[in-house]
Every structure is written in C-alpha cells, then in structure tokens.
C-alpha cells in the first residue's frame, strides 16, 4: 500500500509543481504589470482558483491509477501496478510539461492561452507550418530541454517516491483500509468536481478580475487545450437560434423590427445606394487588397528620415483617403476574411459543411449582380483552407493562385507561404490590363509579411534603430528582418498604386483599397491593457479617382472610426448606382445614419461617438474603458461604468444571423415564416 500511495501522490505532486510553475512563468513573463494592479484579495483568489484548476486536472489524470491501485491491492497483483505506474508517471509529467510549453508560446504569440484557433493549424499548409515553427520558435533548444528534463525528472521523482514511501500513512487494519479507500475516493471526487456548490468547476468560473490577461492565465496548458478541443468539436455543429432571440438582440441594439416574418430580421442590414447617372456611365474597376499583418502599430514606428517603413506607399497615404482609427474584424487571416466575405464569425466556415449556404452579405454576389467580373487573387495556394471551393461557392468568377502567377512570372520569388507581393501585384496589374466587357472587382490576399519573416534575395535589409524597450516587445530574434519585410510589403503595394495611377487607361477608372487582415502578432498587448483597441488596429486606405470624388458626395473625416465591415459599404456607395445589398457596414465617406455605428472587432468594439471602448470578448460580461488618448485609441487601464450593452449585442447579432442562415433548409421560406 505504501508503494501505491507514494507513486500516486508523488506523481501528483510533480504534476502540480509543473502546472503551478508554468503559470508563475506565464504571469511574470506577460502580465506582470496587470498582476501588480490587482488587490491582495484578487491576487489571493487568482492563486486559489488556479490551484483548484490544477488539482482538478491532476486528480483526473490520476483517477485511473488510483482505480488500478485499488484493484491490484485487492487481487494482490502488485507487479502489474509497478510496471504500469512507472511509465504512467513519466507520461503525465511530459503531458503537463509539453502543454505548458505550448501554452507559453501560444500566449507569447496571441496574448492569450490556448483556444480554438490552435486547431486552424490543421487546415494550413503543413510544410509552411513546420517551416514557421522551426523559424520562429526554439525547437532545437526545446528538444534538448525535453531530453534533459527526463533525467532531471527521473532523479527528482526517485527521491520524492522514496521519501513518501517512508512517510506515507498506511492503515493497520482492514476496517481502516476500507475507510481510507472511501475517504481517498471522496477526496478525489471533490477535487475532480472542483467545487462543493451546485455546479462543478468549469470554464465559466475562469475569471477573478476585469483584466483579461490575468484571466487567461487561470487555466493550465492541458486544461486550456481541452477547453479549446471541446469548443472545436462543438463548433462543427452550428447551434440553432430562434428568430425571437434575434428580435430581442435587436431590442438591445435599440432597433425596432417592422414586420413579423423571419425575412424582416435582415431589414436593418439592407442598403440602397443612390441613383447616380455619372456612376451608370462610369463603372470603375475595383481592387481590394488584403495585406498580411498590415499593422497600424507598426506604422507608428515609421520615420521618413530615420526609419522608413512605408516605402512607395508613403505618398499615397498622404494624398488619398486613409482611416487610421480602424480595426480588423478578426484577429487571424481566415477570421477576418470570412467576416469580410460573408459577415460570418466562423473562421472555419470555408472548410465546414455550411460553406455552400446562401449568405445574404456575400460580397461576390453583390458585385456579380451589379454586372462585375469577380476575381480573387492569392499569393498562396488556392487549396489553403479549401478556399478554391469556398470562393467558387460564393460565385467568384475566377480564382487565381500561386500556380498561375508562376506560369505568368516564372522567375517569381516565394517564401514558405507563397509568392512574394511584388509578383502578386504584377499579376493583379496584368489582369487589370486585360480587355474586358465588364468592370472588375478584384480581391487580393498578400503573404510576404508573414512568419517566417524573410525577404527576396535582391532586397536589402534596412537597419532599424529602435530603443530596447520597443524591441523587447517583439518575440522574434531578427527584428530587423521583421521591419524590413513590413516595409517591403508596403513598398510593393505603393509601387502597384504608382503603376495604376501612371496608366492612362486605369488612373481615372480604378478604385484601390487596402487594409491589413490583422495586426502584427506577438507584440505583447496583454501586458499593456491601455492598448485594448490599439492592439487590433489596421489602416484602411482608399484611392478614388478625382472624378468619382466630385460626383459621389464624398465627406472625408480622417479621424472617423471604422472597421472592416465598413469597407465594402463605403466602396459600393461610391461605385455602384441604385444598388440594393445587405451589410453591417457604414459608408465612411458619408454622414448618413448607420444602424451599426461601431468600430467592431470580435474582442473589442467602439461606438462612433468615441466615448469609450468595450471589451466584448465575453458577451455576457462586457467591460467598458474610457479613452485617454485618441491618436492611437489608448484607454484607461481601469474599467469605467459606461454601458456596453449595444456593443455586446452587435457581436451577438452577427453570430445569431450566421446561425440562422447556416441552418436554413432548402424548403425554408423566410418571406413566409413567422417570428416565433
């Protein structure tokens, strides 16, 4: 019995030590400032709740050995247990250690513990993922460290087991033994449940403060992965939503729905551009560029004389429309792309069984119906996340990917993820130069400014003088290459715009828009709570030929807030005449009233009156923060008492309308179905 208990308790002690030590490192590596802003009571509650989560995981891990120990004790089959527990303890140690390491680097990159986004890796190009991991993370040192940890573990574990075997209490009678087994079983059950209340300890309990970075540190690595896995599995089945629930969400937004059919739930999204004779006679080509990691934060480091990060894009940012108080809707490429394409918050939509549904905010449908040829050009492979099929389901007329670019430009350079931006834009210009009976809507997706950061061999790496406190925020060793790659991407976009503006056939009849798919990752926003909004900012650039500016009632305010949901609405409002479509967006070049006046990201929202920002990462408990500096939309580190009901309702509505459309059966007629 001593052997049983010493191995089980010893293994549990080692597992607990690993999990607690990992959390300590997590807190003091990434959210130290937030931690010391907590009251002593909050700090105490944080560690108590953390320990409860760790005990829950540890006792679940050792429930099986305990059961086997009881069985072998009764059957006197000690040899089996000795062989089993030896390898099992080692396995649990490595599970705790490896998931803690993964959680550390995930937090370092994404400013939060492991979540469902980790499973997006399975949908990426495996070789590109491997190259990125090897380049950006200390894989070699990690492998050596894991090997060394084995010998350390064996030495420490042996010592602990020996000491416990001597000191552990063993009942001296059958009655006491039975009682001990019952008590031990109840203790395990209590720790596994994690609570003596009505409900067991669960993900809903993972909050001790209004500081999200601290709350992200509560689950240990294995538990965070389990929660992510659970939600990933649940996400494969879209929940059903009752139309009456959506009606209630509209009430939270202050929007009254007229009509009692399900179709009326989409009425607030309905847009209708003004009838415009000039636009009827002048239908422009439109190029909408989605730039990999085009970060507003990175642009703040730009200095034309000392640190040029803009290249040829600089002059266009000075002469054309640029919105800097602008946020991405998602925080990953697929996340933002899916939202911009069909207003869906499901980043895995392109690979799901719901990808072929008829979504009312489909931008390809909008331009197809307006008589445009719709073209998607990606620097990567079209098989990425099943985008080739997905885009064709959305009715894009043509999908052009790296294979075709290489056919057109055999000397094109490329990296782990795809063709370099120079050749993406050369291909785009080539398409624009082709004769066509229709105007073209071209959407591009760049890739060069993506880890692993590198440049074509003929591009010189620019020296970037930055103070140490700024460099320390970047989790990459070769920071100069990061900034040089960022400059390269901006420069190539600028050169493309130069080429269009210099072309007599294009300059007066081509719109060019550009935004970042998301901010640069891994700059450490969790430990900078004042950057709640800033951490999601990307610019929105728009070139409109002057004759379109003069003939479409443009009202430009460079300080105006916006987000990616507004891009297509803005473009359509100044390119299409008398056209009806559906969108959550607002026309950023107009003063017209908009039903959803929010700069909206899946984690944060700001009303256009700029009174406060709302952390809406948890819809049930949104938290408001007052602005302290409007230039970069910095907020107070402490919450305010402002109301975030409407901002949270906006996130809820987007999700509910997606669920409603995804679950629509072919026989459903929303024009006749009543709201119940």
Structural description of this entry:
The protein has 676 residues and is of the alpha/beta class. It has 24 helices and 16 strands. The strands form four sheets. A seven-stranded mixed β-sheet has the order 3-9-8-2-7-5-6, sandwiched between helices. Strand 15 and strand 16 (634-635) form a beta hairpin. Helix 5 crosses helix 7 (139-167). The radius of gyration is 28 Å and the shape is globular.
Please summarize the sheet with the most strands. Answer: 7 strands, mixed
Strand order of the largest sheet: 3-9-8-2-7-5-6
Discrete helix count: 24
Radius of gyration: 28 Å
The beta-strand count equals: 16
Summarize the model shown:
The protein is of the alpha/beta class. Helix content is 46%, strand content 10%. Helix 1 packs across helix 7.
Features:
alpha/beta, seven-stranded mixed β-sheet, five-stranded antiparallel β-sheet, 10% strand
Give the helices and strands, then pairings.
Blueprint: H1 2-30, H2 32-37, H3 40-61, H4 63-75, H5 78-110, H6 126-136, H7 139-167, H8 174-193, H9 212-216, H10 221-235, H11 243-252, E1 270-272, H12 277-281, E2 285-291, H13 296-299, H14 314-319, E3 321-323, E4 326-327, H15 333-342, H16 363-369, E5 373-378, H17 387-393, E6 398-400, H18 402-408, H19 421-433, E7 440-445, H20 468-471, H21 479-502, E8 510-516, E9 540-543, H22 546-551, E10 562-563, H23 567-573, E11 580-582, E12 598-600, E13 604-607, E14 612-615, E15 623-629, E16 634-635, H24 645-662
Parallel strand pairs: 2-7, 2-8, 4-10, 5-6, 5-7
Antiparallel strand pairs: 1-11, 3-9, 8-9, 12-13, 13-14, 14-15, 15-16
């Amino acid at each position: 019995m001593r052997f049983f208990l010493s191995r089980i308790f010893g293994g549990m002690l080692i597992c607990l030590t690993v999990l607690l030590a990992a959390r300590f490192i997590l807190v003091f590596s990434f959210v130290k400032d937030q931690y010391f802003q907590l009251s002593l009571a909050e700090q105490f509650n944080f560690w108590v709740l953390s320990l409860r989560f760790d005990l829950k995981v540890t006792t679940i891990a050792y429930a099986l050995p305990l059961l086997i120990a009881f069985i072998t004790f009764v059957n006197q089959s000690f040899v089996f247990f000795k062989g089993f527990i030896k390898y099992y303890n080692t396995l649990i140690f490595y599970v705790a250690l490896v998931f803690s390491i993964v959680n550390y680097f995930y937090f370092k990159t994404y400013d939060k513990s492991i979540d469902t986004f980790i499973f997006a890796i399975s949908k990426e190009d495996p070789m590109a993922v491997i190259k990125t991991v090897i380049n950006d993370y200390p894989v070699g040192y990690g492998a050596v460290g894991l090997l060394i940890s084995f010998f350390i573990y064996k030495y420490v574990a042996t010592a602990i087991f020996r000491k416990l075997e001597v000191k552990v209490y063993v009942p001296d009678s059958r009655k006491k033994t039975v009682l001990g087994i019952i008590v031990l079983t109840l203790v395990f059950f209590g720790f596994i449940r994690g609570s003596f209340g009505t409900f067991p300890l669960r993900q809903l309990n993972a909050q001790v403060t209004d500081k999200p970075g601290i709350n992200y540190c509560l689950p240990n690595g294995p538990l965070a992965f389990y929660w992510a896995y659970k939600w990933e599995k649940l996400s494969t089945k879209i929940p059903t939503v009752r139309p009456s629930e959506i009606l209630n969400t509209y009430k939270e937004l202050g929007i009254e729905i007229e009509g009692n059919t399900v179709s009326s739930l989409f009425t607030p999204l309905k847009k209708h551009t003004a009838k415009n004779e000039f636009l009827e006679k002048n239908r422009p080509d439109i190029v909408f560029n989605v730039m990999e990691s085009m970060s507003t934060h990175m642009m703040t480091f730009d200095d034309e004389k000392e640190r040029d990060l803009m290249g040829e894009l600089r002059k266009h940012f000075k002469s054309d429309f640029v919105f800097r108080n602008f946020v991405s809707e998602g925080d990953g490429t697929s996340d933002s792309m899916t939202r911009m394409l069909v207003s869906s918050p499901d980043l895995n939509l392109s690979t799901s069984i719901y990808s072929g549904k008829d979504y009312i905010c489909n931008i390809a449908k909008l331009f197809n119906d307006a008589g445009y040829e719709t073209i998607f050009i990606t620097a990567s492979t079209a098989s990425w996340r099943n985008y080739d099929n997905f885009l064709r389901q959305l009715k894009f007329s043509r999908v052009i990917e790296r294979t075709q670019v290489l056919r057109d430009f055999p000397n094109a350079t490329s990296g782990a993820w795809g063709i370099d931006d120079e050749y993406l834009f050369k291909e785009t210009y080539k398409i624009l130069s082709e004769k066509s009976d229709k105007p073209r809507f071209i959407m591009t997706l760049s890739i060069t400014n993506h880890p692993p950061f590198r440049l074509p061999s003929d591009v010189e790496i620019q020296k970037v003088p930055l103070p140490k406190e700024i460099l320390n925020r970047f989790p990459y060793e070769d920071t100069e290459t990061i900034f040089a790659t960022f400059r390269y991407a901006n420069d190539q976009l600028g050169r493309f715009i130069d080429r269009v503006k210099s072309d007599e056939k294009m300059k007066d009849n081509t719109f060019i828009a550009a935004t970042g798919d998301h901010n640069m990752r891994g700059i450490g926003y969790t430990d900078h709570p004042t950057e709640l909004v800033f951490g999601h900012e990307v610019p929105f650039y728009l070139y409109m030929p002057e004759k379109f500016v003069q003939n479409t009632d443009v009202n430009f305010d460079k300080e105006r807030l916006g987000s990616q949901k507004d891009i297509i609405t803005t473009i359509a409002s100044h390119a299409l005449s008398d056209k009806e479509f559906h969108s959550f967006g607002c026309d950023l070049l107009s003063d017209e009233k908009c039903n959803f006046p929010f700069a909206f990201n899946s984690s944060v929202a700001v009303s256009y009156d700029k009174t406060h920002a709302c952390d809406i990462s948890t819809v049930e408990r949104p938290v408001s923060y007052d602005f302290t500096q409007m230039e970069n939309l910095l907020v107070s580190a402490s919450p305010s008492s402002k109301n975030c009901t409407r901002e949270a309702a906006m996130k809820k509505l987007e999700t509910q309308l997606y669920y409603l459309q995804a679950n629509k059966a072919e026989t459903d007629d929303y024009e006749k179905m009543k709201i119940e």
